[in-house]
Amino acid sequence: MTATSAAKRGIPDATVARLPGYLRALDGLVAQGVGSVSSEELATSSGVSSAKLRKDLSHLGSYGVRGVGYDVGHLRYQISRALGLTQDWPVAIIGMGNLGRALASYGGFAPQGFTVVAVLDRDPAVVGQRVGDLVVQPMEVLPSLTEGGQVAIGVIAAPAASSQDVADQLVAAGFSSILNFAPGVISVPDHVQVRKVDLATELQILAYHEQRRTSPGADLEVAR
Amino acid sequence: MTATSAAKRGIPDATVARLPGYLRALDGLVAQGVGSVSSEELATSSGVSSAKLRKDLSHLGSYGVRGVGYDVGHLRYQISRALGLTQDWPVAIIGMGNLGRALASYGGFAPQGFTVVAVLDRDPAVVGQRVGDLVVQPMEVLPSLTEGGQVAIGVIAAPAASSQDVADQLVAAGFSSILNFAPGVISVPDHVQVRKVDLATELQILAYHEQRRTSPGADLEVAR
């Protein structure tokens, strides 16, 4: 594969999804002052097989050295750069209910290069309120946020019933990356990337297993 | 397959993971006063194929009626019951940093049957503080929380560096369901169910696509 065709195709989605895990494992090694790491060690601490790790890293042009492994600092830089983490990504959060306020006040985005720069709500009674260091803005400002590429990522923290409407407004305003915290499915054009964080679904899956543990067969009782 | 062997095996994991989506689609239909739904309609609003939907629901012993479809109310009950949502699941949150506090204050768990009944932190300076309606308790109370099955689900909101330690303490205290918000991999015994919610990874995957859109090929620049 030439660099040009690879650039067109990009890194496979499944590999992209595993890069953040490798990055975290490398961060841990940097913190311990470790200078080089074998593919086996890095694979174990990332929870994948070493064959998969080597294949994933080969997509970044990183092959390691036999008997020495990977240079921790350089590999960390390569992955950060591949993921686009060597620059800052401004984030707008839409929907200032409980979850939106919690996310806006959550300090964990900024250290990773994701800065919440705008919070919006469609309720006029909420617009103008302070949430952390920001003032809630009306939905009408959405298009102005993407001018000149200021804001890159839109976070949907609206209720499920209005999530499609918010997604449509984000797309119309020129957002092409959406992180959706609302339960349910949203439809967007092909050029828009959507990632989902669904607390409700994860809890319900745990409830299923917890019920099976405490009342075996209850999941199927109605089927008998 | 007999009901007994099905009860032993349970519903396939992939089906369990899709049930919350069907439930949400059915909630929407109930709200609209719709009494019955075809597999095609329900599949479309859940974002799956109708063949997959019918297969999934057959694991619950629900087959629908040709030309009529599924009874919305009954199917909703069957799925709720299969998922264990006809009872309440008390939740304990471990780690009262930004994320833990945000989750403890987030009002969205309770209406779905997940009630936050305890918040814990290992820092003596944080223990005793109020978070919402609760007082932060020390880690030493963990074993008492699971006595008599009071608390079912442990939520890890600790930093990545201490997430394995918290997981070990949850397992030792008798928790068998863990929702992990800390980045990285945690190891638990086979009988313990872990689900992950990883905001950082989702944002990093979006950053990758956003970078490819704004600077095509930058992900592979270091590889050339």
Structure description:
Chains A, B: One of its GO terms (biological process) is response to redox state. Chains A, B: Modulates transcription in response to changes in cellular NADH/NAD(+) redox state. Chains A, B: One of its GO terms (molecular function) is DNA binding. Chains A, B: Pfam families: CoA_binding, Put_DNA-bind_N. Chains A, B: Belongs to the transcriptional regulatory Rex family. The structure is a homodimer of 224-residue chains. In chain A, 43% of the residues lie in helices and 15% in strands. In chain A, helix 2 (13-31) packs across helix 3 (39-46). With 224 residues, the first copy, chain A, is α/β, with parallel strands linked by helices. Chain A has two domains: 6-82, Winged helix-like DNA-binding domain superfamily/Winged helix DNA-binding domain (Arc Repressor Mutant, subunit A), CATH 1.10.10.10; 89-199, NAD(P)-binding Rossmann-like Domain (Rossmann fold, 3-Layer(aba) Sandwich), CATH 3.40.50. In chain A, helix 6 (98-105) links the parallel strand 3 (89-94) and strand 4. In chain A, the strands form three sheets. A five-stranded parallel β-sheet of chain A has the order 4-3-7-8-9, sandwiched between helices. The model of chain A is unreliable at 1-6 (pLDDT under 50). The first copy, chain A, is globular. At the A-B interface, helix 1, helix 2, helix 5, helix 6 and strand 8 of A face helix 1, helix 2, helix 5, helix 6 and strand 8 of B.
